[in-house]
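Late entry, written up from scratch paper. The run itself happened at the end of the previous shift, but nothing got recorded in the book at the time, so transcribing now.
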Amino acid sequence: MITEEEIQRALAERHSPEVRQKLAGARVAVAGLGGLGSNVAFALARIGVGHLHLIDFDKVDITNLNRQQYFIRHIGMYKTSALTQELMEINPYLELCPECVKVTEENLLSLFAQDDIVCEAFDDPEAKSVLVNGILEHYPDKFLVCASGMAGWGGNDTIRTRKVTERFYVCGDGVSEPSYGRGLMAPRAALCAAHQANLITQYIIEGQIE
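Output as recorded:
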């Protein structure tokens, strides 16, 4: 069994002790654990982000396997449970808080109270609107990273990170919605998720985005 000390020493060797400490102390909520959120959570867990709040109410479906970080054995499981299992295999000493719940205007205030950073990773436009508007209204000091436009394939350079306000950013191309023959696929979804995870990492380490 690998010890927590061994994992922390390995992370410090890769990142430096100072960066490892900042990552270990970060509190990030990932709302939506599909093609975006499951990839974001994997990236943040691998670099040692110490506190991950995992939020979703859905179960793993066979149609999720084309782009999400799940396997056949997870079909029928709640995504919060399946992803928690996987992340614990990466680092069993992370503080994971899985919540199998739908984000609503009524529960948003309490749901995100302890999180410093919020990553919006929903497919549904209405769910995106509820989360974004709620965080901007009630928690303007939290760092918010959203995504819009990552359907289809190709167009690597069109996936970008756009600053909306000092603490609100949107990743994606902003236009590529799913359509017949150009649905959500692993490469482009993962590319957008990497933008989100990388931006969150920068904010944790530097405390701001220049």
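DSSP finds seven helices and seven strands in the chain.
(Scratch paper discarded after transcription.)
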